[in-house]
Recover the amino acids of this structure.
């Protein structure tokens, strides 16, 4: 296994599972399951034990490995120099399980959906652009940017709502961009994080070839997970594109005072998506947008930015739900974090986070107290015009 | 015993009991070098009543019970020597109460030192406790249970000396309060003016009961902290240097370290002196007083203060010191362990020479650390060796070096701190037979079936 020369170096000191002030456990799977085996140190020791033949690839081992949300909190907080490889090590171990053919059924089904239909929802490809009906967004035809929506933005009800809002705002702001519609296919970020390296490579190569054929050089992503794949993984496969998240575009429009807003009186707290924040290092753009809207009082949750607590959807868990369920599921914990701030709105910048957290408000029975809104939706509701 | 799992699940809930191979593997070992022994079940209780239920059931069935915090003693104290139930305490992590004016806090048995530190930082910035340099995951209760030491140990003794009350589930499953809290709602004393029964539990590693709540004394937190390092190339000066510094009573903490790498540290002994104050003037006064106390050594060119760069200062002032853990990666191998006897400071030169000798003999990387306990009443001297977990030969050499260090420490008057099972046996053999008999009498009376962390402090 790749990284097998590193796994023995974990001291299992436990710094990886905390916030930086050690107040809270910040590893979502440890926070839910509470066995040390579900913490990063536990995974490291068990991966080594498995490689050494001391334990087998059991259902429990699979649950331990696949409940990792790849949120990167351990990378942020580990005390050792190999910290940057922690998530990669867990993904590599998943790859080994995938190659062995013994993986959780939910993971297998996810791969099947992607490989057969090109999306995990098992919906026809021709429906992929349906979200855009009624908007003025065009199919990509030499525009400056490709607006890449991703599977969740294309098929999930909340994701589609977000995609419509963002595309409307960016189009209104005069950004030249188009979509691929039914030609779009999965970016593969979750495929890779779930350990199907071959399928990921095939998806990435297909996307890269299509992007190149269409002359695409710049991409705006709706989903930070796609941002991560395009920025970090595609270049190794020959896909060098200028990729930004839509909040970065909006933030730049705010900074240049190119857009203006009506007052939007609300107490808002912002949830950092792990893939926009810890993985891609973008913490400021979403906040600068919210701070620029008159009437918004932005209140931070205690666990924010590098210490943000994952919604539990990362690492494929959005689709497999191995980490979900129960009052200690990360999405429900995160909703309680947001409620503790007194905010009326929990703002997000990721369609996966939006779905996870909106579902959690219902499970917690607080959907009337706390609205989940994507920053694109908030902006679309208060955008008055352009200063050009 | 086939339905034990179900009975445990009835007590703590299905989610919080496991007999899966993965959990038994992990909870059967710690980061040190003691051989693994797998438990039969791992449980994660959330309440005192659940712990009572577990212990009562274990008592009925004669099943061993091993309480566990973060499992960071490195000496295998939570390895279930005879299998049974490992009770992971970390779901019991609430801060129960704090008395600001009386300066004590009550925490549940699984509360981490990191969590308590963060809580005080936020809510009571004028209060602190003696935070150890073990990882932040270390639990307060486990730390006092093993007579841990921390940043205030030079002023107030072992962290267990700073306990202000205990709540314990006895081996019978009964719940008992120890100290002032036994007859009052206040947790200001673990013993006096009553008979001090805290000794029935502290230092026993869970062999006499499970600490479900611990009262901990808090101390004034000054606004400022600083650190200086006095360096000498001769270990023979260290006892006198420490005597002079402790005489000033001006320091927060005093540690000494020696290590061969990086080369700037080689062949020197570094006395790390921590200062606190509510103003720059106060810190300066304290520093000047300590500097003056060491004039003679400086004039004779026997030592001097080294320049401490900003990076090093930041690392030294960190609480807990994360780099204490990273010693485990010196050989890119994920492990270190130390024999850490409590011993008088006049033995520092002998200990440090022995450490050097053992490191050469067994070809190991080492780090020598001494933490001053009280006003020089004793020190904890750590014979620390780092090892590569994937190098069987190095593991063997490290075990041998540690064993030899332990034997040596015992021979020169040291008393093992958080001893391994092997060290406990060595200690029991050497100690006054009447003391050993008294230990056995206490254990037998409290735990007649011997279910609590069996193997620890057991004499034949």
């Amino acid at each position: 296994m790749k990284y097998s020369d590193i796994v023995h170096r974990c001291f299992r000191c436990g710094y990886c599972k905390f916030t930086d002030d050690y107040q809270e456990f910040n590893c979502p799977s440890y926070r839910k399951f509470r066995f040390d085996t579900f913490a990063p140190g536990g995974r490291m020791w068990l991966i080594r034990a498995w490689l050494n033949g001391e334990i087998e690839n059991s259902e429990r081992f699979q649950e331990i490995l696949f409940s990792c949300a790849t949120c990167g909190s351990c990378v942020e907080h580990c005390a050792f120099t190999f910290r940057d490889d922690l998530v990669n090590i867990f993904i590599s171990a998943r790859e080994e399980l995938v190659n062995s053919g013994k993986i959780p059924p939910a993971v297998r089904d996810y791969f099947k959906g992607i490989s057969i239909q090109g999306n995990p929802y098992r919906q026809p490809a021709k429906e992929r652009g349906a979200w855009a009906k009624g908007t003025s967004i065009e199919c990509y035809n030499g525009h400056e940017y490709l607006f890449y929506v991703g599977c969740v933005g294309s098929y999930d009800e909340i994701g589609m709502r977000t995609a419509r809002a963002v595309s409307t705002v960016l189009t209104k702001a005069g950004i030249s961009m188009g979509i691929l519609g039914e030609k779009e296919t999965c970016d593969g970020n979750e495929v890779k994080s779930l350990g199907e390296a071959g399928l990921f490579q095939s998806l990435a190569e297909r996307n890269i070839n299509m992007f190149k054929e269409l002359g695409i050089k710049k991409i705006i992503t709706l989903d930070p997970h796609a941002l991560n794949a395009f920025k970090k993984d595609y270049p190794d496969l020959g896909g060098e594109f200028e990729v930004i998240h839509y909040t970065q575009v909006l933030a730049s429009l705010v900074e240049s005072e190119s857009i203006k807003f009506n007052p939007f009186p609300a107490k808002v707290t912002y949830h950092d998506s792990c893939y926009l924040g810890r993985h891609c290092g973008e913490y400021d753009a979403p906040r600068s947008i919210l701070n620029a809207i008159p009437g918004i009082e932005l209140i931070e949750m205690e666990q924010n930015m590098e210490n943000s607590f994952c919604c539990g959807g990362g690492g494929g868990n959005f689709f497999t739900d191995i980490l979900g369920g129960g009052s200690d599921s990360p999405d429900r914990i995160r909703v309680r974090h947001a409620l503790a701030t007194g905010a009326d709105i929990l703002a997000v910048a990721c369609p996966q986070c939006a779905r996870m957290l909106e579902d959690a408000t219902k499970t917690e029975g607080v959907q009337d107290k706390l609205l989940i809104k994507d920053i694109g939706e908030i902006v679309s509701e208060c955008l008055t015009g352009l200063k050009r | 015993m086939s339905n034990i799992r179900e009975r445990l699940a009835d007590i703590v809930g299905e989610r919080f009991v496991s007999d899966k191979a993965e959990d038994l593997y992990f909870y059967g070992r710690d980061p040190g070098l003691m051989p693994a022994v797998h438990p039969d079940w791992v449980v994660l209780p959330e309440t005192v009543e659940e712990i009572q239920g577990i212990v009562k059931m274990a008592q009925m069935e004669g099943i061993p019970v091993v309480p566990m915090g973060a499992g960071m003693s490195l000496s295998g104290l939570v390895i279930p020597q005879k299998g049974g139930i490992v009770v992971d305490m970390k779901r019991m992590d609430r801060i129960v109460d704090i008395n600001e004016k009386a300066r004590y806090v009550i925490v549940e048995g699984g509360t981490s030192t990191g969590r308590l530190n963060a809580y005080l930082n936020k809510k009571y910035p004028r209060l602190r406790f003696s935070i150890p340099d073990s990882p932040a995951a270390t639990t307060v209760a486990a730390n006092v249970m093993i007579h841990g030491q921390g940043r205030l140990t030079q002023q107030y003794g072992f962290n267990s000396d700073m306990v202000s009350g205990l709540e314990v589930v006895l081996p019978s499953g009964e719940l008992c309060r120890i100290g002032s809290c036994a007859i009052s709602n206040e947790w200001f004393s673990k013993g006096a003016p009553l008979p001090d029964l805290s000794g029935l539990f502290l230092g026993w590693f869970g062999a006499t009961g499970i600490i479900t709540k611990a009262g901990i004394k808090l101390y004034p937190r000054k606004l400022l902290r600083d650190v200086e390092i006095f360096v000498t190339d001769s270990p023979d000066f260290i006892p006198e240097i420490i005597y002079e510094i402790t005489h000033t009573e001006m320091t927060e903490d005093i540690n000494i370290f020696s290590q061969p790498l990086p080369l700037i540290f080689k062949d020197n002994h570094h006395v790390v002196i921590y200062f606190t104050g509510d103003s720059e003037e106060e810190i300066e006064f304290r520093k000047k007083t300590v500097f003056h106390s060491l004039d003679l050594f400086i004039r004779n060119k026997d030592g001097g203060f080294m320049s401490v760069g900003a990076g090093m200062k930041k690392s030294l002032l960190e609480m807990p010191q994360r780099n204490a853990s990273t010693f485990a990666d010196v050989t890119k191998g994920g492990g270190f362990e130390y024999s850490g006897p409590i011993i008088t400071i006049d033995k520092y030169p002998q200990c440090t020479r022995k450490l050097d000798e053992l490191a050469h003999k067994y070809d190991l990387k080492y780090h020598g650390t001494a933490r001053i306990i009280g006003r020089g009443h004793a020190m904890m001297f750590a014979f620390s060796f780092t090892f590569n977990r994937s190098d069987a030969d190095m593991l063997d050499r490290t075990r041998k070096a540690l064993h030899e260090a332990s034997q040596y420490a015992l021979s020169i008057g040291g008393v093992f701190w958080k001893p391994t099972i092997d060290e406990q046996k060595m200690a029991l053999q050497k100690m006054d037979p009447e003391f050993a008999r008294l230990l056995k009498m206490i254990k037998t009376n409290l735990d007649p079936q011997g279910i609590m962390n069996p193997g620890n402090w057991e004499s034949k």
Q: What stands out?
A: Chain A has 17 helices and eleven strands. Chain A has a mean pLDDT of 97.
